[in-house]
């Protein structure tokens, strides 16, 4: 019996949701709505993984160990994306799937993708040290804002101005205002912390010499204290935002920051911001070949193939630098070794999770950018909204701060909300597919 399946493609098409899955072609984001959904999910992922790495550093785990674990699953995420979304269905002219494209003569664009991976790896590696000096929230504010101001401008022109300039650049202006507010938050909070420490006898009159604070241990059923040497006990935790909390944190964390110049952290942060501002334009060139470096007739890299090469170079640089830092550490960190790293399972699964979140977050950002323009996809640089949430909830940042600090913090977060909304509203539509 003959059955007519001519209408099957239209029935299974998900184009109304922005996903081209009709006829088992490659899984692509095509609509503006689908692109914005990718950006929002990427925003959550990219704002969460820094909080996880910060948590591990504050618990005393060496950043070299953490970043090596993170790098493994970050690459794994790119491989999973390429072998699933990039390999579904069959190739078609102008849009080969992932495996097919690996054998094509597309090396000029592959090199652009790998260059993007290198600068991202350098930026991520730098920020894990900057978080200790400058704080999670302010580090993310500065790096994200530099990324938007430089990277978004480059992407706007590379994308042949498909984004609405009259909306896009006011959004960039909102990020600049947020930078100023973020700097003010940091300055005000630093003054608050200095005032707390100046009143603490443990801080030796502000000379920066840290002594361990008195920690009390109490039994659950008796209102009495007991020395550590006497056996089992329950720690009475210091409260977030107090001077004892700040000193206890300094004693536990891997990167010691008391007594060191704030310029070290700011310098690292600015370097990271410049690196972050370049990786998205490089990826844009890899997938769209605006400089016409490919031979005529060779298809452009699809976003999944470009992301695979991007992540390969990111992984290689991370492994080389972090193995070097094991034996030649920076910022007075203790020396380690590969053997010590392999034996260190304290927090390893958290580092693995951070790598997956970052990998999938970057992939979603690029998927959304390929559909709606990479300039609009830079809206994910509002990730300090998420990082600040985790910083306040998990790390107690800004607890017991002054009213001035809270006012500035609220203003910064409000400006970031405005900025991400404006950048998303500027999204255009690429007619490549």
UniProtKB/TrEMBL annotation:
What does UniProt list as this organism's lineage? Eukaryota, Viridiplantae, Streptophyta, Embryophyta, Tracheophyta
Q: Which GO terms describe its molecular function?
A: ATP binding; transmembrane transporter activity
* PANTHER family the UniProt entry points to: UREIDE PERMEASE 1-RELATED-RELATED (PTHR31081), UREIDE PERMEASE 2-LIKE ISOFORM X1 (PTHR31081:SF18)
Which top-level group of life is the source organism from?
Answer: Eukaryota
Keyword tags: ATP-binding, Membrane, Nucleotide-binding, Transmembrane, Transmembrane helix, Transport
Which family is this protein grouped under? Belongs to the plant ureide permease (TC 2.A.7.19) family.
Entry's Gene Ontology cellular component terms: membrane
Indicate yes or no for the key word Isomerase.
no
Record-annotated membrane-spanning stretches: 34-55, 67-85, 105-123, 130-155, 167-186, 262-286, 306-328, 349-368, 374-395, 407-427
Name listed for the protein in its UniProt record: Ureide permease 2-like isoform X2
Q: What is its main location?
A: membrane
InterPro entries attached here?
A: UPS_plant, Ureide_permease
Localisation per UniProt entry: Membrane
Mode of membrane association: Multi-pass membrane protein
Q: Carries keyword Membrane?
A: yes
Q: Name one Pfam family in it.
A: Ureide_permease
């Amino acid at each position: 019996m003959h059955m007519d399946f001519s209408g099957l493609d239209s029935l299974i098409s998900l184009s109304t949701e922005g996903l081209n899955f009709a006829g088992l072609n490659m899984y692509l984001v095509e609509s503006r709505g689908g692109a914005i959904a990718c950006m929002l999910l990427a925003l959550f992922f990219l704002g969460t993984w820094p909080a996880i790495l910060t948590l591990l550093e504050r618990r005393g785990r060496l950043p070299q160990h953490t970043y090596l674990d993170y790098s493994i699953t970050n690459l794994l995420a790119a491989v999973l994306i390429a072998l699933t979304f990039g390999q579904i269905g069959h190739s078609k002219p102008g849009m080969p799937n992932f495996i097919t494209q690996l054998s094509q003569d597309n090396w000029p664009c592959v090199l652009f993708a790998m260059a993007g991976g290198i600068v991202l790896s350098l930026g991520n590696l730098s920020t894990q040290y900057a978080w200790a000096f400058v704080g999670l929230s302010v580090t993310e504010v500065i790096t994200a804002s530099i990324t938007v101001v430089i990277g978004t401008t480059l992407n706007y022109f590379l994308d042949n101005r498909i984004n609405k300039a009259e909306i896009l650049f006011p959004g960039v202006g909102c990020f600049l205002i947020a930078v100023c507010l973020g700097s003010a938050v940091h300055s005000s909070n630093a003054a608050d912390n200095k005032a707390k420490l100046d009143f603490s006898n443990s801080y030796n009159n502000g000379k920066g010499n840290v002594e361990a604070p008195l920690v009390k241990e109490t039994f659950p059923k008796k209102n009495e204290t007991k020395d550590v040497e006497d056996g089992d006990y329950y720690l009475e935790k210091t409260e977030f935002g107090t001077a004892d909390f700040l000193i206890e944190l300094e004693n536990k964390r891997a990167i010691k920051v008391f007594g060191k110049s704030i310029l070290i952290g700011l310098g690292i942060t600015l370097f990271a911001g410049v690196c972050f501002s370049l990786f998205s334009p490089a990826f844009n060139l890899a997938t769209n070949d605006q400089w016409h470096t490919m031979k005529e007739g060779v298809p452009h890299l699809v976003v999944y193939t470009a992301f695979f090469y991007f992540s390969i170079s990111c992984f290689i640089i991370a492994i080389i630098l972090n193995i070097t830092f094991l034996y030649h550490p920076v910022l007075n960190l203790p020396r380690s070794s590969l053997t010590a790293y392999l034996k260190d399972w304290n927090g390893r699964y958290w580092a693995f999770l951070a790598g997956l979140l970052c990998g999938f977050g970057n992939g979603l950002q690029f998927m959304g950018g390929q559909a709606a323009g990479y300039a609009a996809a830079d809206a994910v640089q509002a990730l300090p909204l998420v990082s600040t949430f985790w910083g306040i909830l998990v790390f107690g940042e800004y607890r017991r701060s002054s009213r001035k600090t809270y006012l500035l913090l609220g203003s910064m977060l409000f400006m970031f909300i405005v900025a991400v909304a404006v950048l998303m509203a500027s999204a255009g539509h690429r007619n490549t597919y």
